[in-house]
Design a protein that fits this description.
67% helix
């Protein structure tokens, strides 16, 4: 399967489904996204062939893509600021 064979909507659905199972390597190894040629090339270069290894590779690819869109340090700063705001409100909701 090549990425050009997928419609944008179908690709989004597949990515959303894969993210729901991000830490289930066995599931991801049999996921349709695991059939993308770019992942197969990466697997070939690593010499790994089990579906669990394929799932791990898909997991790493998805996490890399997430990091490229929203860097971890941004989320860390956001989480700290939210925790700080909640703490300064005495544990009450910041919005109340």
């Amino acid at each position: 399967m090549t990425s050009t064979e997928l419609s944008t909507r179908k690709f989004e659905e597949l990515v959303a489904n894969a993210l729901e199972h991000l830490w289930d390597y066995a599931y991801l190894g049999k996921h349709p996204l695991a059939e993308l040629q770019s992942l197969k090339k990466q697997m070939h270069s690593n010499g790994k062939w089990s579906h669990v290894d394929m799932g791990r590779t898909l997991n790493e690819t998805l996490r890399y893509a997430i990091e490229r869109v929203v860097p971890v340090n941004h989320w860390l700063r956001f989480s700290i600021s939210v925790a700080s705001a909640i703490s300064s409100q005495g544990g009450q909701s910041v919005t109340s």
